[in-house]
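stage 2 :: seqdesign
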């Protein structure tokens, strides 16, 4: 029997990769997009242009996770077997600027979906997009499903509520609800203000004289970066598992922002030389032009200094492992940027 999936957050990075993945598995895919005054479905253009994807299996609906009525109506109307909650105000720095909205969407949004599921059909399987940001000020390294949480931002705290309310509804109502605890994952479709995309895009532009300088914040935070394509496969695998559970999804490797910049520069054959310390640290190219500078405005009131996960449980129980490493991720991101230039 053909399965139906409903994706909240379909217009985001993961929504686009998950849609493609599920369509290739012959799912009927329904997605929830927000009303916007400007075009917000560009990440889905690929699906519309893909000859191999059956358009009759793909539907978009207006809705919002801060609006219980739209959530209830859409679950009732689309009758999904699986609901993926990827919708969120997902920028950690922005969550300090709009904490109340972030909490409404990222915490209460999950509760609204869970409540609709138990009222409409308890057989619907549910995936919650949890985050390694919940580990925050890490209590141990590497982080596993058993590591205690210590969020460091309104975003992390809201995601932590979603984590526990998902566990609670699973136990209280016996529904198939899973938390993915996903570490940073990136791709050519990553939002422009996340550090990897910002670095790749800027260094590509600097290489081809379209931009002079890149401004960043903390160069020494460490992240465990994977590829979104691998991570959406893990989301689906969780919902096909023999029991609902929570899983850490990561690569087990970590790099600083500075190392990431160096790796991107290396692939682009830009030779860079770092000078200075702290907020005054700068990178210069071979002609001694300053191409990377730090700016206080990108620092956060509280930072997550280090994240590095252990995906042993997912490897063992879901038979999941990442196919991309950091270099293939960077290569994919650079190729996309350079193609975009050529099509300009
Ligand atoms: P993203 O690119 O920022 O996408 C977020 C999606 O949520 C977009 O479709 C956005 O719509 C939608 N959205 C935001 N507020 C909404 C609202 N009030 N109602 C309905 N939809 C709303 O994020 P992503 O990187 O794909 O991540 C997907 C999910 O995984 C998020 O929940 C994120 O917090 C979580 N996560 C991400 C990572 C990561 O490294 N990428 C790691 C762990 C967890 P618009 O397009 O209209 O803005
Ligand atoms: O790319 P980021 O903004 O990602 P962050 O904060 O780790 O959050 C992402 O990953 C989480 C999973 O752990 C997700 F849940 C969340 O939704 C999001 O997708 O920043 C990464 C690091 C931070 O330490 C930040 O301080 O890079 C540092 N950084 C340094 N300069 C910068 C910049 N971050 C951004 N966005 N912009 C900078 O210029």
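stage 2 :: out
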């Amino acid at each position: 029997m053909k399965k139906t999936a409903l994706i909240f957050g379909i217009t985001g990075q993961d929504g686009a990769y998950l849609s493609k993945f599920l369509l290739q598995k012959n799912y009927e895919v329904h997605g929830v997009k927000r009303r916007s005054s400007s075009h917000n479905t560009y990440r889905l253009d690929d699906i519309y242009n893909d000859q191999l994807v059956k358009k009759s299996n793909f539907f978009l609906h207006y809705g919002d996770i801060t609006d219980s009525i739209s959530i209830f109506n859409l679950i009732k109307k689309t009758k999904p077997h699986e609901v993926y909650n990827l919708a969120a105000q997902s920028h950690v720095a922005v969550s300090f600027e709009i904490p109340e909205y972030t909490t409404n969407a990222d915490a209460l949004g999950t509760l609204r979906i869970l409540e609709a599921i138990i009222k409409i059909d308890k057989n619907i399987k549910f995936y919650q997009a949890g985050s390694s940001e919940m580990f925050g000020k890490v209590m141990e390294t590497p982080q596993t499903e058993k590591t205690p949480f210590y969020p460091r931002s309104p975003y992390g705290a809201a995601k932590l509520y979603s984590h526990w309310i998902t566990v609670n509804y699973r136990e209280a109502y016996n529904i198939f609800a899973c938390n993915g605890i996903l570490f940073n994952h990136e791709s050519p479709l990553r939002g422009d203000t996340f550090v990897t995309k910002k670095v790749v895009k800027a260094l590509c532009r600097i290489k081809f004289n379209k931009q002079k300088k890149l401004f960043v914040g903390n160069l020494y935070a460490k992240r465990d970066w994977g590829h979104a394509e691998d991570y959406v496969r893990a989301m689906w695998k969780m919902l096909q598992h023999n029991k609902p559970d929570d899983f850490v999804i990561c690569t087990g490797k970590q790099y600083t922002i500075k190392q990431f910049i160096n790796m991107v520069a290396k692939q682009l054959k830009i030779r860079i030389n770092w000078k200075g310390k702290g907020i005054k640290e700068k990178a210069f190219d071979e002609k001694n032009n300053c191409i990377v500078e730090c700016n206080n405005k990108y620092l956060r009131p509280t930072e997550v200094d280090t994240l590095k996960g252990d995906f042993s449980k997912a490897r063992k129980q879901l038979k999941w492992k990442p196919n991309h490493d950091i270099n293939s991720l960077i290569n994919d991101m650079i190729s996309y940027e350079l193609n975009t230039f050529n099509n300009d």
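stage 3 :: structure notes
- The chain has eleven helices and 15 strands.
- The two ends are 43 Å apart (CA to CA).
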